[in-house]
Design goal:
By secondary structure, this protein is α+β, with helices and mostly antiparallel strands. It is built from five helices and seven strands. Strands 1-2-3-4-5-7-6 form a seven-stranded mixed sheet. Strand 4, helix 4 and strand 5 form a beta-alpha-beta unit. Helix 4 packs across helix 5. The radius of gyration is 16 Å and the shape is globular. The model has no long low-confidence stretch (mean pLDDT about 90). The structure holds coenzyme A. Coenzyme A (COA) binds next to strand 4, helix 4 and helix 5. Pathway: Amine and polyamine biosynthesis; ectoine biosynthesis; L-ectoine from L-aspartate 4-semialdehyde: step 2/3. Its EC number is 2.3.1.178. GO terms for molecular function: diaminobutyrate acetyltransferase activity. Pfam families: Acetyltransf_1.
Amino acid sequence: MALPAHQPAAKGFPHGPVAFSLRKPQAADGAAIHRLIAACPPLDVNSLYCNLLQASHFADCCILAEGAGLVVGWISGYRLPVDPRTLFVWQVAVDPAVRGQGLGQRLLTALLARPGLGDITAIATTITPSNRASWALFQGFADSQGAPLRHDTHFDRERHLAGTQESEHLVTIGPLPTMRAAA
Ligand SMILES: CC(C)(COP(=O)(O)OP(=O)(O)OC[C@H]1O[C@@H](n2cnc3c(N)ncnc32)[C@H](O)[C@@H]1OP(=O)(O)O)[C@@H](O)C(=O)NCCC(=O)NCCS
């Protein structure tokens, strides 16, 4: 059965400021997360099953935002298997209708402020050179933590991505302060 299309937040949103609530996901959120990601190019749309695993097995490293009863923000992540004190941020998605209000930054800050992630000393992610919003988001987070941001080509367009998409730069932010403010 095909999933219903993501309902853009703008359609269901009241005018004026909307309060967002941030929380850990659960499996029941998987379909809404899947639809949000599909509405947020250039993100890869992985399978719904992948989002279900993220929202259940990896819930401690993921966070979602709700506004007016809709899932409007999402970060998936996991601890790097070879370095569990580094949190790999897989995808960040904010509904187009509520971008530019600091929600992406709030999600990232709140995720890293979780007591269960207090031992995380660095975050890593990959960003394509043209994704200005993503660079600004992670640079803003690094600045807010007073932590250096380093980057280098990681997955090369020709060597790893079969010439089909832009190279992905590996971005590392750390060392992070041990006491991190909540969003
Ligand atoms: C990237 C994304 C998550 C940002 O969400 P957001 O809630 O709008 O981000 P914020 O409002 O917290 O803004 C964070 C920073 O990015 C900047 N920014 C936001 N959109 C921008 C854009 N289109 N171009 C340049 N800078 C941008 C903001 O000015 C802010 O910078 P500042 O801290 O210096 O003021 C959102 O644009 C998105 O979902 N994009 C599509 C999916 C994607 O590319 N995800 C990232 C890769 S995993």
